[in-house]
Amino acid sequence: xxxKDHLIIFDTTLRDGxxxxxxxxxxxxxxxxxxxxxRMRVDVIEAGFPIASPxxxxxxxxxxxxxxxxxxxxxxxxxxxxxxxxxxxxKGANAGRIHTFIATSPIHMEKKLRMQPDQVLEQAIHxxxxxxxxxxxxxxxxxxxGRSEIDFLCRILEAVIDAGARxxxxxxxxxxxxxxxxxxxxxxxxxxxxxxxxxxxxVHCHNDLGLAVANSLAAVRNGARQVECxxxxxGERAGNAALEEVVMTVRTRQDLFDCxxxxxxxxxxxxxxxxxxxxxxPVQPNKAVVGANAFAHESGIHQDGxxxxxxxxxxxxxxxxxxxxxxxxxxxxxGRNAFRARLQELGxxxxxxxxxxxxxxxxxxxxxxxHEIFDxxxxxxxxxxxxxxxxxxxxLISMHVCSETGEIPSANLVLAFDxxxxxxxxxxxxPVDATFKAIETIVASGTTxxxxxxxxxxxxxxxxxxxxxxxxxxxxxxxxxxxxxxILIASAKxxxxxxxxxxxxxxxxxxxxxxx
Length: 516
Known about the structure:
Blueprint: E1 8-11, H1 27-39, E2 44-48, H2 54-66, E3 71-77, H3 80-89, E4 96-103, H4 106-113, H5 117-132, E5 138-143, H6 150-163, E6 167-172, H7 179-192, E7 200-205, H8 212-221, E8 226-229, H9 243-252, H10 268-279, H11 300-308, E9 327-328, H12 336-345, H13 353-369, E10 373-374, H14 375-389, E11 394-402, E12 410-417, E13 420-427, H15 431-443, E14 448-456, E15 465-473, E16 476-484, H16 487-503
Helix pairs in contact: 1-2, 1-10, 2-3, 5-6, 7-8, 10-14, 13-14, 15-16
């Protein structure tokens, strides 16, 4: 594949995806996702916004040191402090990139920046030159390019190329564009900017009108050779272009695209499940490529056609994106070597023998409750173990819940709070409500419940239930997750996981949205 035919995949799950309310990730969670993206052979991983907080700086630094095969990027506003902080965070990267941005639309320049166009131009040039002091790989984004005036856009992009930017990212920041319009914008910029051949054109589309993927693909058809996207389309507001949809559209429709990615698409499902588990954002069943129904056929006509010839109703092979019927046919008498080997096949990396032992003990407990252990169970099991050890001030010791026809449900729990066992009891409108109220008699978190969601991880009545709880306090939103074959225990775990996050100081406090 020649260089011009390589479509660069720039994954911003760890940065823009994290800006979804409640999707904040710890440093270790970011490293875990970054390693999964590396296994998928993602070209560029935007690890975060280093100036945003000490926690974000440390997370970018950790990802830069842990990942060797993908380029690691840090976001920076067109400010000296931002750029220098990003450069410092990326020092340990095998290959690093600084992505700097400034708004260029009239409404943003006037209302947000309170700057004249010439001032914005000067600031952009200065930012790119300063970033070049840290790395040869500098990306520049004119924020809200989709609503910017074309003459000024051409002028500023020509100038930043001369200053040393080698990637020009054109963002549809508010998801305002439609495919024909956005594709035409990319074609116009490439035609009108004299030095356009010295830079790779990139796009970053938001999904406010449900057009992020369509706009991204229209841009690729008009010469863009980098797409910024996220796993499962995660991102603030309606999200970003979904990586899996962009990649598989280009791969499937090679008759229309004169480029392709270098991704190992068989890793898509692993990444999707990992991101969903860590962020607590479940994937809708009818989601393209990674949804539970993506390769399911209910219609008799469809089923008959697929049985006779797969291509009648399937344009992709499920195996090509990591779907499989593989199940771990191990039980409570199975050994840890077989357990470890299957985790490695799934791309689950445990960093120490202690982690392996803890995960294996959890596997044994699950095998006592559940006859068949599926791959999804294993991934959830490891995620659940990670959740319990992270900032765990409150832990479930035991619980007794009673729900009887004609009686008010009640819950009695024993929790360890900062190492001290305490008992709490409450009644509620249902067993889950009673459980959460009983927890609050001990924790007194002062939060408001914003979301309670239950998903079955696999099929069958003995399936693990995965519960997501979203809590809000003083404008801060956190997600909690928990899994168990008993849905009430899973609910308690999820609520406690969220409480532990609320009780722990926030690592992220953006001085300004890093939304480009």
